[in-house]
Amino acid sequence: MSPTYNERDNVDEFLHRVGAAVPTADIYIVDDDSPDGTGSRVREIGASNPRVRLIARTGERGYAAASRDGLVQLAHSGYDAIVTIDCDLSHDATVIPLMLEQLESGADVVIGSRYVVGGGVRNWSLFRRLLSRWGNRYTGFMLSVGVRDCTSGFRAYRSDVIRLGAISDTTSNGYAFLTEVLFRLRQREVRNFVEVPIVYVDRVAGESKMSKTIITESMRKVTGLGLERWFRRR
Ligand SMILES: Nc1nc2c(ncn2[C@@H]2O[C@H](COP(=O)(O)OP(=O)(O)OP(=O)(O)O)[C@@H](O)[C@H]2O)c(=O)[nH]1
Ligand SMILES: [Mg+2]
Tell me, which fold does domain 2-230 have in CATH? Predict the structure, then answer.
């Protein structure tokens, strides 16, 4: 499953790569009514390939809301496992089979991680590198979720773990959602998080949706969750 906003320049290649990596999987695009027509392109492709499906959202926009809706809907639709992956080709789809193997071996969530041995980033600006690296260090310090790359959106979830309700409980709007999910899962004693190395490649086409608002929310949210943990409100 991939949340999309204005990814028309990437979506054909994305679907091709994911389809090649996991030929028997259904691929869902959760689109927020992208003005560039990403959704209609997915519908067109889906007309001749029944594995490609569109979840079309209108109204409230956002990475977190789209991910939340998609994950919860699919976890209740009979799938055993759900993979989340960005549509901008930053995540290497050939890693998906390895992630699914880890789930079968007992992991609750498998995370494509930039910060374990063998992982990394390619073509990222110094600012993005520092932001992500230090953001993750701060998160590790505040929340101790036991994961080195809490903000990676490339993940495989066991559906029964999602059905526990941790995802529906999240309130973040941006990428803080990814950290919040792990935090809420741990509150439910779900903690078998396994990281597999990925090399993250910066997008070539389309525009980044990263913004100051998202960065600020992320820092605020991690601090808030850290305080919640320290004061054991839940
Ligand atoms: N449905 C939906 N998807 C979104 C929204 N914002 C971002 N996305 C998607 O979420 C994924 C990650 O977003 P990106 O903009 O690539 O964010 P990023 O990976 O942190 O930043 P860059 O790689 O630098 O662009 C992509 O597939 C986007 O299309 C949104 O508001 N709604
Ligand atoms: Mg991206």
Answer: Spore Coat Polysaccharide Biosynthesis Protein SpsA; Chain A (3.90.550)
